[in-house]
Amino acid sequence: MSVDSHIVRQQFRVSYEYPVAFTEGIFDPKNLILRDTVTTHEKSRRHRVVVIIDGGVSASWPDLGAKINRYALAHGTSIEILGEPIIVPGGEACKNSTKFVDELHGEFAIRGLDRHSFVLVIGGGAVLDMAGYAAATAHRGIRLIRIPTTVLAQNDAGVGVKNGINAFESKNYLGTFCPPFAVLNDVHFIDTLEERDKRAGMAEAVKVALIRDAEFFEWMCENSHLLARFERSAMAYMIRRCAELHLRHIATSGDPFEYGSARPLDFGHWAAHKLEVLTDHGLRHGEAVAIGIALDSAYSVEAEFLPAEDFDTICNLFEDLGLACTHDLLGQSGDDGRLLIQTGLEEFRQHLGGELTVTMLTSIGTGIEIHQISDHLLQRSVARLLQRRQAA
Ligand SMILES: NC(=O)c1ccc[n+]([C@@H]2O[C@H](COP(=O)([O-])OP(=O)(O)OC[C@H]3O[C@@H](n4cnc5c(N)ncnc54)[C@H](O)[C@@H]3O)[C@@H](O)[C@H]2O)c1
Ligand SMILES: [Zn+2]
């Protein structure tokens, strides 16, 4: 006897839109970007806002809370700040347990946030990820305004559609895809960042230029002396262009919520993630990405996709920016004779799901996806990189 089944096909589309602003003096009452953002949908209402600040940012900008209150007072018909800013520890510490997410959920409940209220979070990528996850999961989504304060957060981590915290020894294991209400970048925040962090964030700009925009890569080469000393207008342009290219990819790749196996914006990242773990996070993410990119550029040469001069140009740019292209761990093998970093490939595949997909270069500005990495070519790529260091 056949079973009588009936399938109703559900289908609908949702379109997303959010502004990513680049400004200076964001809490100067004369700067109307924040007020206009909050009043986007309801011009004449007073909007309720909870402020969360990264502990590293509040230590460097001790009067930030008072400044925000003055701003809210100057725009009192549009903005109501609910209570004192919530300060959370900066960096990965805030993502390593559910503690701070739970605390934020409690505060949202006590302060009476509803789905039309705003969570305004100011901080590095880690705090944005953690607070974004808390906002996305309270009331099934409270409006989130991000104010990123590091180079990496302004040009990459803070402008996209993801959030999350680490769990079960896996990075970003708990998280959601949830576009923000707005992202407001103020380049002045970068001033108080450690030099090492300023440099590290530039690796993401090199990355996206290499796979998407040869002209931007050339601009970075021509302006590397300005970027190396963090000249403000060069930094501002580098951040803006990098953010734009990330945004364009999310909007036009056809896979904003990463259902597929390819992730071109993770160019250079399989080895980078592994190096971060192998060094017990002694390397900053961007520092590891620079090495990962140099390695995959060397592989692109060994696989005869990319001319060897391009590999040299890429390494020269990193070095001009003060970023190393090699690391001692690259050449080290385990008991099985395979390179230690090689397990990073399977971990990367698992993280993305599906078939292994790694981006390589066919020229500066153009990537190509491949699905297999040969042990032999990888060893030659490592040798090419290490030789470069010996030659220097
Ligand atoms: N959601 C995404 O799409 C995405 C993408 C890439 C990276 N990320 C995440 O971003 C995180 C890394 O972010 P990050 O590189 O911005 O570093 P971070 O958030 O770890 O911050 C680094 C340090 O700088 C401090 N800090 C931040 N801004 C400062 C300022 N203006 N002045 C002084 N100190 C300041 C912080 O307190 C912290 O101690 C990782 O957790 C990573 O997983 C997320
Ligand atoms: Zn990255």
| Total E-strand runs | 11
Estimate the helix proportion, in percent.
40-55%
What general outline do the C-alpha atoms trace?
Answer: globular
Q: Radius of gyration from the CA trace?
A: 22 Å
Distance between the first and last residues' Cα: 78 Å
Q: Which structural category do the helix and sheet elements fall into?
A: alpha/beta
What's the main sheet like? 7 strands, parallel
Question: How do the SSEs run, as a string of H and E?
Answer: EHEHHEEHEHEHEEEHHHHHHHHEEH
Ligand identities: nicotinamide-adenine-dinucleotide, zinc ion
Task: Describe the overall structure.
This protein is of the alpha/beta class. It is built from 15 helices and eleven strands. Strands 1, 2, 3, 4, 5, 6 and 9 form a seven-stranded parallel sheet that branches. Helix 4 crosses helix 5. The longest helix is centred in the middle third of the chain and has 21 residues. The model has no long low-confidence stretch (mean pLDDT 95). Nicotinamide-adenine-dinucleotide binds next to helix 2, helix 5 and helix 6.
Itemize the secondary structure elements and their pairings.
Layout: E1 20-23, H1 33-38, E2 47-54, H2 55-60, H3 64-74, E3 79-81, E4 86-88, H4 99-110, E5 118-123, H5 125-137, E6 143-148, H6 151-157, E7 165-167, E8 170-174, E9 182-186, H7 195-212, H8 214-222, H9 224-228, H10 232-252, H11 269-278, H12 285-302, H13 308-320, H14 343-352, E10 358-363, E11 366-370, H15 375-391
Parallel strand pairs: 1-9, 2-3, 2-4, 2-5, 5-6, 6-9
Antiparallel strand pairs: 7-8, 10-11
Helix pairs in contact: 4-5, 6-7, 6-10, 7-8, 7-10, 7-12, 11-12, 11-14, 12-13, 12-15
The structure holds nicotinamide-adenine-dinucleotide and zinc ion (ZN).
